[in-house]
Amino acid sequence: MILIFAFGPFLKWKRNSAYESARxxxxxxxxxxxxxxxxxxxxxxxxxxxxxxxxxxxxxxxxLGVGLNPxxxxxxxxxxxxxxxxxxxxxxxxxxxxxxxxxxxSPIAYFATIPVKDIVNSLKQKGIPAKKSYSAGTxxxxxxxxxxxxTIDKLGLDAKxxxxxxxxxxxxxxxxxxxxxxxxxxxxxxxxxxxxxxx
Length: 199
What we know:
Layout: E1 2-7, H1 17-22, E2 29-30, E3 33-40, H2 44-58, E4 62-68, E5 75-78, E6 80-82, E7 85-87, E8 97-100, E9 109-111, H3 116-125, E10 130-133, H4 140-155, E11 160-166, H5 183-197
Parallel strand pairs: 1-3, 1-4, 4-11, 5-10
Antiparallel strand pairs: 2-3, 5-11, 6-9, 7-8
C-alpha cells in the first residue's frame, strides 16, 4: 500500500492544493500497490494521534506527506524534518508552540528515505519545476514529515517516507501576489514521486 497524508484547509486557505491534488490518486494502482489518501487536519494533536496509528495498521511500502507552501515557485521535495514545533499562528485546534519537541527522547532530525534527488531529477526531465529543500519549516508540514519518519523508524518498517510541498493552484493565487501551479502538474509530481520511490 501507498499512504498519502495530505493537508486540508488551514488558516486563511479555504482550499488546499495538496489534498485536492492527492485525492486524484486515491484508489489508483501504481506499480501494483494501491494508493490510499488521508485528508489530514492541520493539527498537531491529529497528526500525533492518527498518523502513527494508520501507519501501524496498514504497514505501507511508501508514506508521503503533502502540504501547501503558498510561496513555493516549484515542487519542493523535502530532505529533512526536525524535532521541533515552533509557531505563533495557531493550528486547527488553536494550539501554538514555542521550541517544543514533537516527540520527547527522539532524534533531533530525520532524513527523508524517499530518493529525493532522483525524484527532483525525474520531475525536471518531465518539465515540472522542482527542487530539493532542506527546510520543511517548524509548522505542521515539518511535524507531519517528522511523525511519518519517526513512526517508520520506531516500528522498524521496511518503508520509505518523505514530504512534498506544492504551490497553490492558479485560482488560489488570483488575488494574491504568489506563484501557482496547475493541478495536473501537481498530480503528476506526486505520481512520479511514488513511482520513483517504489523502484
